[in-house]
């Protein structure tokens, strides 16, 4: 009993923080989602009216949801591919690889607002670094954030700046693959591609699943980049050209802190939570078909 009490004592700071800062606000937001509340007057209970309006009549929410799904469909697979490629390169025995690993990881911990301001300059259509390089090659660069077609691809390109965390997970998984497997494959005549497909990918599949789920959750909540880079200072233009970057969380922010419709914003948050939950459970179910756990084979 004493050791049990000591254990609870050690975890009590985390438990207190979780209850007060996470679980409590979640329960409160669930209640708020069933109210009409402007924060300037007491909340009025309206039941499921917010959800009915959100899922039935709100075309801008539907647009924000489609924008978010498009961004997730582009950013997640491209980010996984790039981070895996970097991890494969940094897993090779080359001089100074520790320094290179640090350099590739550092951008992922940089303040996202500062990164957004940096990329606003890089992707500026007139004097930006990228379009300047394209002009030197005789190519007219796109308008990026000033174009409805290029706004989301620009954000996807920017997201590659923060693949360091994903790369570290892949790198750890790659270093955990027994070298004997590659030696046996070479004796059987397997080439580089064969070893990658039949050894590397199955052995790092748990890390791939983790990065996939975390990537979907993170990209579904994209906010800061769009808020900083697509006209947040001008009400009504938060979503970039023709609302091309009006994502769900950006729309939630607009409803909560610009229109002061806190109950409606809370219902948006819970719909997004439910969609992310469904996507996560679906991935866990499908993982049984393609994720290889070494312990299960022993």
- Indicate the overall shape: globular
Q: What is the tally of beta strands?
A: 2
CATH class of one domain: Mainly Alpha
Question: Could you say what the CATH architecture of one domain is?
Answer: Orthogonal Bundle
Q: What is the N-to-C order of secondary-structure elements (H for helix, E for strand)?
A: HEEHHHHHHHHHHHHHH
Number of helices: 15
> pLDDT below 50 for ≥5 consecutive residues: which ranges?
none
Detailed description of the structure:
It contains 15 helices and two strands. The chain is mostly helical. The chain has a domain at 59-93 and 163-297: MetI-like (MetI-like fold, Orthogonal Bundle). It has a two-stranded antiparallel sheet with strand order 1-2. A hairpin with a 7-residue loop joins β1 and β2 (44-45). The two termini are 37 Å apart.
Characterize this entry briefly.
This protein is an all-alpha fold.
Layout of helices and strands:
Layout (H helix, E strand, L loop, with lengths): L1 H31 L2 E2 L7 E2 L3 H8 L2 H32 L6 H9 L6 H11 L6 H8 L14 H9 L4 H12 L3 H9 L4 H12 L1 H16 L3 H6 L18 H10 L4 H29 L3 H4 L1
Antiparallel strand pairs: 1-2
Helix pairs in contact: 3-7, 3-8, 3-11, 8-11, 11-14, 13-14
């Amino acid at each position: 009993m004493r050791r049990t009490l000591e254990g609870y004592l050690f975890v009590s700071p985390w438990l207190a923080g979780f209850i007060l800062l996470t679980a409590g606000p979640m329960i409160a937001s669930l209640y708020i989602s069933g109210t009409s509340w402007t924060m300037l007057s007491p909340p009025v209970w309206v039941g499921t009216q917010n959800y009915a309006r959100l899922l039935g009549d709100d075309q801008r929410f539907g647009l924000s949801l489609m924008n978010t799904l498009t961004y997730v469909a582009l950013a997640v697979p491209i980010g996984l591919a790039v981070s895996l490629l970097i991890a494969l390169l940094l897993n090779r025995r080359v001089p100074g690889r520790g320094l290179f690993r640090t350099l590739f990881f550092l951008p992922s911990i940089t303040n996202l607002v500062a990164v957004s301001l940096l990329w606003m300059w890089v992707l500026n259509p007139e004097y930006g670094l990228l379009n300047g390089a394209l002009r030197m090659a005789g190519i007219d660069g796109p308008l990026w954030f000033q174009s409805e077609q290029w706004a989301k691809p620009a954000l996807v390109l920017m997201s590659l700046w923060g693949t360091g965390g994903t790369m570290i997970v892949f790198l750890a998984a790659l270093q955990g693959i027994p070298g004997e497997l590659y030696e046996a494959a070479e004796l059987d005549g397997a080439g580089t591609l064969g070893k990658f497909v039949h050894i590397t990918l199955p052995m790092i599949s748990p890390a791939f699943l983790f990065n996939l789920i975390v990537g979907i959750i993170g990209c579904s909540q994209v906010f800061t980049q769009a808020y900083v880079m697509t006209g947040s200072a001008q009400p009504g233009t938060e979503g970039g050209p023709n609302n091309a970057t009006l994502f769900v969380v950006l729309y939630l922010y607009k409803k909560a802190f610009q229109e002061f419709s806190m109950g409606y914003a809370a219902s948006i948050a819970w719909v997004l939570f439910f969609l992310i939950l469904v996507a996560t459970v679906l991935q866990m179910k499908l993982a049984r078909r393609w994720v290889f756990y070494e312990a299960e084979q022993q």
